[in-house]
Amino acid sequence: MSDPLFPPPPPVEPKQRPPRPKPPKEVNISFAVWVLTAVVGLVIQVLDTNNFVTQYMKSIEGMPGAEALDAGTLKVIYLGAVIVVSALMVLFAWKMRSGRNWARVLITVLTVIQLMTQAATVGFSVSLDAWLPLLSVLVAATGLVYMFVPPSNAYFREMTKINLASRPR
Protein backbone atom coordinates (compact mmCIF):
# COMPACT_ATOMS: atom_id res chain seq x y z
CA MET A 1 0.00 0.00 0.00
CA SER A 2 1.37 3.38 -0.89
CA ASP A 3 1.35 6.47 1.26
CA PRO A 4 -0.63 9.33 -0.41
CA LEU A 5 1.76 11.93 1.02
CA PHE A 6 4.81 10.16 -0.35
CA PRO A 7 3.97 8.57 -3.68
CA PRO A 8 6.56 6.22 -5.18
CA PRO A 9 9.03 7.87 -7.53
CA PRO A 10 8.32 7.57 -11.23
CA PRO A 11 10.15 4.75 -13.00
CA VAL A 12 13.56 5.77 -14.25
CA GLU A 13 14.31 5.00 -17.83
CA PRO A 14 17.76 3.49 -18.25
CA LYS A 15 20.12 5.81 -20.03
CA GLN A 16 20.78 4.60 -23.52
CA ARG A 17 24.42 4.53 -24.42
CA PRO A 18 25.27 5.62 -27.93
CA PRO A 19 26.62 2.81 -30.08
CA ARG A 20 30.36 2.35 -29.83
CA PRO A 21 32.12 2.94 -33.14
CA LYS A 22 34.43 0.26 -34.46
CA PRO A 23 38.11 1.15 -34.30
CA PRO A 24 39.38 2.30 -37.69
CA LYS A 25 41.97 0.17 -39.47
CA GLU A 26 44.70 2.63 -38.43
CA VAL A 27 43.98 1.97 -34.75
CA ASN A 28 43.92 -1.77 -35.42
CA ILE A 29 47.27 -1.55 -37.22
CA SER A 30 48.74 0.38 -34.31
CA PHE A 31 47.30 -2.20 -31.88
CA ALA A 32 48.91 -5.01 -33.88
CA VAL A 33 52.24 -3.16 -33.90
CA TRP A 34 52.23 -2.72 -30.12
CA VAL A 35 51.22 -6.32 -29.42
CA LEU A 36 53.84 -7.58 -31.88
CA THR A 37 56.43 -5.30 -30.27
CA ALA A 38 55.57 -6.64 -26.81
CA VAL A 39 55.73 -10.28 -27.93
CA VAL A 40 58.96 -9.90 -29.93
CA GLY A 41 60.51 -7.88 -27.10
CA LEU A 42 59.55 -10.61 -24.63
CA VAL A 43 61.10 -13.33 -26.79
CA ILE A 44 64.31 -11.35 -27.33
CA GLN A 45 64.64 -10.56 -23.63
CA VAL A 46 64.01 -14.18 -22.63
CA LEU A 47 66.62 -15.38 -25.11
CA ASP A 48 69.05 -12.74 -23.81
CA THR A 49 68.50 -13.55 -20.12
CA ASN A 50 71.78 -15.39 -19.59
CA ASN A 51 73.75 -12.60 -21.27
CA PHE A 52 72.04 -10.00 -19.06
CA VAL A 53 72.70 -12.01 -15.89
CA THR A 54 76.36 -12.56 -16.83
CA GLN A 55 76.93 -8.88 -17.61
CA TYR A 56 75.17 -7.76 -14.43
CA MET A 57 77.09 -10.19 -12.23
CA LYS A 58 80.38 -8.96 -13.75
CA SER A 59 79.39 -5.34 -13.16
CA ILE A 60 78.72 -5.85 -9.43
CA GLU A 61 81.69 -8.13 -8.82
CA GLY A 62 83.72 -6.89 -5.87
CA MET A 63 81.05 -4.47 -4.67
CA PRO A 64 79.95 -4.72 -1.04
CA GLY A 65 76.90 -6.96 -0.76
CA ALA A 66 77.34 -8.35 -4.29
CA GLU A 67 77.34 -11.89 -2.98
CA ALA A 68 73.82 -11.40 -1.57
CA LEU A 69 72.29 -11.83 -5.02
CA ASP A 70 73.01 -15.07 -6.82
CA ALA A 71 72.60 -15.56 -10.58
CA GLY A 72 69.51 -17.78 -10.23
CA THR A 73 67.63 -15.20 -8.18
CA LEU A 74 68.63 -12.44 -10.58
CA LYS A 75 67.39 -14.53 -13.52
CA VAL A 76 63.99 -15.07 -11.87
CA ILE A 77 63.63 -11.35 -11.04
CA TYR A 78 64.68 -10.36 -14.56
CA LEU A 79 62.26 -12.77 -16.26
CA GLY A 80 59.44 -11.70 -13.94
CA ALA A 81 60.04 -8.05 -14.76
CA VAL A 82 60.19 -8.76 -18.49
CA ILE A 83 56.89 -10.67 -18.38
CA VAL A 84 55.16 -7.95 -16.34
CA VAL A 85 56.35 -5.17 -18.67
CA SER A 86 55.24 -7.11 -21.76
CA ALA A 87 51.84 -7.86 -20.22
CA LEU A 88 51.37 -4.19 -19.30
CA MET A 89 52.24 -3.13 -22.85
CA VAL A 90 49.60 -5.52 -24.24
CA LEU A 91 47.07 -4.19 -21.70
CA PHE A 92 47.80 -0.58 -22.69
CA ALA A 93 47.50 -1.51 -26.38
CA TRP A 94 44.18 -3.22 -25.66
CA LYS A 95 42.88 -0.15 -23.83
CA MET A 96 44.13 2.08 -26.65
CA ARG A 97 42.26 -0.03 -29.20
CA SER A 98 39.08 0.24 -27.12
CA GLY A 99 39.28 4.03 -27.39
CA ARG A 100 40.93 5.04 -24.14
CA ASN A 101 42.94 8.15 -24.92
CA TRP A 102 44.93 7.87 -21.67
CA ALA A 103 46.35 4.58 -22.98
CA ARG A 104 47.32 6.22 -26.27
CA VAL A 105 49.11 9.00 -24.37
CA LEU A 106 50.81 6.51 -22.04
CA ILE A 107 52.05 4.36 -24.93
CA THR A 108 53.38 7.50 -26.61
CA VAL A 109 55.25 8.66 -23.49
CA LEU A 110 56.72 5.19 -22.85
CA THR A 111 57.78 4.85 -26.49
CA VAL A 112 59.45 8.26 -26.55
CA ILE A 113 61.33 7.42 -23.32
CA GLN A 114 62.37 4.07 -24.82
CA LEU A 115 63.57 5.72 -28.03
CA MET A 116 65.52 8.38 -26.12
CA THR A 117 67.14 5.72 -23.95
CA GLN A 118 67.97 3.67 -27.00
CA ALA A 119 69.47 6.68 -28.75
CA ALA A 120 71.60 7.41 -25.69
CA THR A 121 72.86 3.85 -25.29
CA VAL A 122 73.16 2.72 -28.92
CA GLY A 123 73.62 6.09 -30.56
CA PHE A 124 72.30 7.43 -33.80
CA SER A 125 74.86 5.75 -36.04
CA VAL A 126 73.63 3.30 -38.60
CA SER A 127 75.92 0.33 -38.92
CA LEU A 128 75.43 -3.26 -39.95
CA ASP A 129 75.46 -4.48 -36.35
CA ALA A 130 72.81 -1.94 -35.28
CA TRP A 131 70.04 -3.24 -37.54
CA LEU A 132 67.85 -4.51 -34.69
CA PRO A 133 67.74 -1.16 -32.83
CA LEU A 134 67.08 0.62 -36.11
CA LEU A 135 64.28 -1.81 -36.93
CA SER A 136 62.73 -1.31 -33.49
CA VAL A 137 62.82 2.48 -34.00
CA LEU A 138 61.02 2.11 -37.34
CA VAL A 139 58.39 -0.22 -35.87
CA ALA A 140 57.80 2.12 -32.90
CA ALA A 141 57.51 5.10 -35.26
CA THR A 142 54.95 3.16 -37.32
CA GLY A 143 52.87 2.43 -34.22
CA LEU A 144 53.02 6.06 -33.12
CA VAL A 145 52.08 7.44 -36.53
CA TYR A 146 49.07 5.13 -36.88
CA MET A 147 47.83 6.16 -33.43
CA PHE A 148 47.71 9.83 -34.45
CA VAL A 149 46.53 9.92 -38.08
CA PRO A 150 43.20 11.75 -38.67
CA PRO A 151 40.94 8.65 -38.59
CA SER A 152 42.50 7.59 -35.28
CA ASN A 153 42.13 11.07 -33.83
CA ALA A 154 38.45 11.14 -34.86
CA TYR A 155 37.90 7.73 -33.24
CA PHE A 156 39.46 8.82 -29.94
CA ARG A 157 37.45 12.06 -29.93
CA GLU A 158 34.22 10.10 -30.49
CA MET A 159 35.08 7.54 -27.81
CA THR A 160 35.91 10.33 -25.34
CA LYS A 161 32.48 11.89 -25.97
CA ILE A 162 30.76 8.54 -25.46
CA ASN A 163 32.71 7.77 -22.30
CA LEU A 164 32.01 11.21 -20.82
CA ALA A 165 28.30 11.03 -21.71
CA SER A 166 27.90 7.65 -20.04
CA ARG A 167 29.42 8.71 -16.71
CA PRO A 168 26.98 8.95 -13.81
CA ARG A 169 26.29 12.48 -12.77
Automatic annotation (TrEMBL):
Q: Where is this region: Disordered?
A: 1-24
TM ranges: 27-47, 76-94, 106-124, 130-149
User: What is the name attached to this protein's record?
Assistant: Uncharacterized protein
InterPro entries the UniProt entry points to: MFS_trans_sf (IPR036259)
Q: Which SUPFAM superfamilies match?
A: MFS general substrate transporter
What residue spans carry the Pro residues bias annotation? 1-13
Per UniProt, which keywords does this protein have? Membrane, Transmembrane, Transmembrane helix
